[in-house]
Structure formats: C-alpha cells, structure tokens
C-alpha cells in the first residue's frame, strides 16, 4: 500500500522542499510537520509545505504512514526515542542525514519491530537553511543514496526508493559504512577545508578576495551547529580524509622546489583533467567506467 500520510520532522530547507515537491507531484499526501520553532512552522504552512503543524514529534507521527527525519543529525537519537511509541504498525521511517551509521544503528535499537527504517541521503540543498529557501524542484535529477542493511525489509526498501523517484531523484545504494567513508571525502572534508580557508585569512587578505575565493569557500556559509554534528558523528572517517589531504599538500610542498617544475605542471594538469572528467560525467556527457 502506498503511503498517503507523510510526517516531516524538521521543516527547514530540505523538509520544506520535500513538502513542496509532494504538492507538485501527482500523489496525494496529507503532510504533518514538526519543528521546535513556531515561526518556522507558521512559514511552512504559509508556503503550503505542510498541512498540520506540531511542536511535539510524537504527535506529528501518529497515524502517519511515512516519516522523514529532516532535523540535524545530532537530533536524530532523541527524536527516534520520542516517536518510537507513537508510530503505528507498518509505518516507514527514513531520513535525509549526511551520516548514516549512527542513525541506522539507533533506528534498529529504538524502533519497534513492526516499523521499518531505511536510511536515505538526498544529495541536494545548499549552504542556506530555513523553509523560506525551500523549492519544489530541489531534488529534480539529484542523486539520493539509499543505505539498506541485510536486515532491511525489502518492501520498505522498494517504497522508500519509489518515494524519492517520485521527487525526480536518481538512486544509488551503499552500505552505511561505505556512505560515511565516501561522504567524508566529497562532502565533509570540503566543508572543513572551506571553513579553514576562511579561518586562516587576515582581514587585509580578505579585502582582496575575488570571485574564485568566494566560489571555493561558498559552503563555509553553512550552519555551524548542523556541521558540528556531522563532523562529530563521522570523526573517524573525517580524520582519515584530513590525513590524505595532508599527504597531497605535502606532495605539493615538495613540488614547489624550482627543480620540480615539470612534475608540478604534470600534477596540476592531472587534477584539472580529473575535474573536467567529473564535470562531464555530472553533465551526462560521459558515463563512469
């Protein structure tokens, strides 16, 4: 049976965009929204991202078929504890978190056996936060990573994947461990580096910054509390990513020797070519091997 009552726990950019995308689709959903700030809930209702507003997550999920955790990852554990007794048998629960091992583990420990959890991570959004930045097309053609385990219910997995497809997303599957390892490299480390690039600058240098610097540090504008939770939750993988970045910077340091000019050019050309290939893959001009 396809879900018709949807609960969005956290009606910010992602949660609000899910609500708007559901409104724009062909499937009828009655949408309950949870948030801890009344102003955000009022905005979500004003923008038609939700039908009902709750400041209690347990109340927001009663009689719901499908629940999506859209709060910062640091809030997943207490919210799962609160909603577990209120979920009806057969309910599906997923999330949009940037880390997966902890939420998959917590859901397995806290949710009743009659409720099915499937981890999700839609690779969408921006450094902005808040329902006022929500868009119905935010997920269109973007990638969603699904993280099933050997214990995942097959029917629940199919339904969660079907939901993201209705929002226009492309899908891939990873284990929770693979997800956290890979995302440390391509998401968490870049944010940390962007923040470090801002942090190392003097005021005099920043006054001279151009568009290239702003492009390279755009993601440093994200919410500090949200990214703190992600960094702490995936600290082991992030530390490994930092070590491998240091190895690359040490290599660059050695190549700054004037005698290493040819090798430096080769290194720069290789990285430029690799980025160009990545860009062409993202644009659909070529397919990965």
* Main β sheet profile: 6 strands, parallel
Q: What structural class results from the helix and strand content?
A: alpha/beta
Number of strands: 9
- Average per-residue pLDDT, rounded, comes to 94
The proportion of strand residues reads 5-15%
Shape estimate: elongated
**CATH evolutionary superfamily of the largest domain:** NAD(P)-binding Rossmann-like Domain
Low-pLDDT parts are none
Tell me the series of helices and strands, N- to C-terminal: EHEHEHEHEHEEEHEHHHHHH
What is the rounded distance between the termini? Answer: 37 Å
Please provide a written account of the structure.
The chain contains twelve helices and nine strands. The strands form two sheets. The chain has a six-stranded parallel beta sheet. It has helices at 13-24, 38-46, 57-61, 76-83, 101-110, 154-166, 176-199, 203-206, 211-216, 224-233, 235-255, 261-282, and strands at residues 5-9, 30-34, 52-54, 66-69, 92-95, 116-117, 119-122, 143-147, 170-173. The longest helix has 24 residues, at 176-199. It is of the alpha/beta class. It folds into two domains: 5-174, Rossmann fold (3-Layer(aba) Sandwich); 178-255, 6-phosphogluconate dehydrogenase C-terminal like domain (6-phosphogluconate dehydrogenase C-terminal fold, Orthogonal Bundle).
List keywords for this structure.
single chain, alpha/beta, 289 residues, 2 domains, 6-stranded parallel sheet, 50% helix, 6-phosphogluconate dehydrogenase C-terminal fold, 9 strands, Rossmann fold, 3-stranded mixed sheet
